[in-house]
């Protein structure tokens, strides 16, 4: 996590410097060359979309760096990724149990696709997708409680 913290602090600094350079360059190139014409809303010396976008990217990188740094300090220990002498097995933790031949996740994804299709096309498709999604979710949850795999 220490490397991640440093990486995001570097990214925050880069985005902040890029924002300053972008805004300055934009003001120098597209500034008001004719002093007799006042700068209006339609001809602003600052291009706001890029300026605000780069600034918010710097803010986001700062927030992530701060959070990862605080989490790293709160753990009180080093992760295997931060140690030079760590083995691959040190970071190999239990990730959970996944059904190797289960069709339920695929069917649940199809029902989610129907729900999102209904948002674009018509609400009645979303209702159908949500209904069969509930059935598929229950089937996936109780997959190992009935039939051949029941225990």
Describe this structure in a few short sentences.
The protein is mainly α and 151 residues long. It is 62% helix and 0% strand.
3D structure, described in words:
The structure is a single chain. With 151 residues, the chain is an all-alpha fold. It folds into 2 domains: 2-91; 104-149. The protein contains 4 helices and no strands. It has helices spanning 2-30, 48-75, 104-120, 123-141. Helix 3 (104-120) runs antiparallel to helix 4 (123-141). The chain is flat, with a radius of gyration of 26 Å. The mean pLDDT is 85.
Overall shape: it is flat
SSE order: HHHH
Structural class of the helices, strands and pairings? mainly alpha
Strand residue percentage: under 5%
Overall structural domain count: 2
**Strand elements, count:** 0
Radius of gyration: 26 Å
| Main beta sheet strand tally, sense and closure | none
Low-confidence stretches: none
Count the DSSP helices. 4
Task: Report the span from N to C terminus.
Answer: 41 Å
Mean pLDDT across residues: 85
Helix share bin: 55-70%
């Amino acid at each position: 996590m220490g490397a991640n913290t440093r990486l995001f602090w570097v990214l925050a600094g880069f985005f902040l410097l890029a924002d300053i350079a972008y805004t300055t360059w934009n003001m120098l190139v597209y500034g008001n060359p004719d002093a007799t014409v006042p700068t209006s809303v339609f001809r602003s010396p600052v291009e706001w979309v890029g300026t605000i976008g780069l600034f918010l990217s710097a803010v986001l990188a700062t927030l992530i760096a701060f959070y990862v740094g605080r989490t790293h300090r709160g753990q009180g220990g080093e992760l295997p990724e931060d140690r030079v002498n760590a083995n691959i097995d040190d970071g190999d933790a239990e990730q959970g149990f996944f059904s190797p031949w289960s069709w339920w996740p695929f069917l649940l994804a199809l029902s989610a696709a129907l729900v999102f299709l209904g948002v674009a096309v018509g609400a009645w498709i979303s209702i159908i997708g949500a209904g069969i999604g509930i059935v598929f979710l229950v089937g996936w949850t109780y997959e190992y409680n009935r039939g051949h795999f029941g225990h």
